[in-house]
Design goal:
Number of domains: 3
CATH architecture of the largest domain: Roll
Oligomer: single chain
Structural class: alpha+beta
Radius of gyration: 26 Å
Strand content: 25-35%
Distance between the termini: 30 Å
Strand order of the largest sheet: 3-4-5-6-7
Largest sheet: 5 strands, antiparallel
CATH topology of the largest domain: PH-domain like
Number of helices: 4
């Protein structure tokens, strides 16, 4: 994390705007110098002042139960210091986010397709003797319903694979922006409205093992869960940095 930097623009009295995040500090400082030189050349004024903020070392912060400052091995998530807080980026996790659901949805649709082919072939085969006309409506409805269920599971799996998020946390506010196939959701709270940031059970169970999530509890007792598709280590890592950025504990 000591080599990761971010570039923000101070726009008068407005809120600082992030320009780039989670790049090597040397690159960010070089980009800041070049932008300042271009601004000075185009406006004929003195270059804007540049302030380089050093990230606080984890040891300088008060320790909290369950803190994990080291990035989990193999994670694609980035966390960087930015204007008195942090910015975290959770990129799409690919097949690892929904491998089980994806495989199950494909098997389900394969079975439904096979069953539909058998029913179609059986319906087209001439029957011996004279029997009552075959009712094709009910099997078609059943196949259609099961096909829609499979399509829904497949869409859910692809959504989990492609969704991404960005988080911004400081002593002033906590913002979580999630983007998926079905749109964008924004969670925003002032830091004083957050009572706890922790990792806890989501209520889902897979193979008799509870699925954990990152949980944000506000002062009114309302709890919001995020990132069930991340590993437990990644969830604890995110929770640690969010707690230290906002000054909020884990709660009871």
């Amino acid at each position: 994390m000591s080599d990761v930097g971010a570039l923000t623009a101070e726009l008068g009295s407005g809120r600082p705007r992030p320009v780039v995040v989670a790049y090597p500090r040397g690159w960010v400082e070089a980009l800041a110098a070049r932008l300042n030189a271009d601004i000075a050349a185009q406006t004929g004024t003195a270059p804007p002042p540049v302030t380089v903020a050093e990230p606080a070392a984890p040891g300088e912060l008060p320790a909290m139960r369950g803190d994990r400052f080291d990035a989990p091995a193999g994670t694609s998530i980035t966390i960087s210091q930015l204007a008195g807080g942090i910015v975290a980026v959770v990129p799409p996790q690919g097949a690892r986010a929904s491998r089980g659901l994806l495989i199950f949805a494909i098997l389900w649709l394969t079975f439904v397709g096979f069953f539909a082919a058998v029913m179609t072939f059986a319906g087209d085969t001439p029957k011996r003797g004279r029997g009552r006309p075959q009712n094709k409506f009910v099997p078609a409805v059943v196949i259609g319903v099961f096909g829609l269920i499979g399509a829904g599971m497949l869409a859910g799996a692809v959504n989990q694979m492609r969704r991404k998020a960005s988080l911004r946390a400081s002593r002033d506010e906590l913002i979580i922006l999630e983007q998926s196939l079905f749109g964008t959701k924004t969670f925003k709270r002032a830091a004083r409205e957050v009572a706890a940031i922790r990792v806890g059970p989501s209520g889902m169970v897979v193979n008799n093992v509870p699925v954990l999530e990152l949980q944000i509890m506000d002062t009114g007792g309302k709890q919001q869960g995020f990132f069930t598709h991340l590993t437990n280590d990644e969830q604890h890592w995110l929770a640690t940095h969010l707690r230290h950025a906002t000054g909020v504990g884990e709660g009871g």
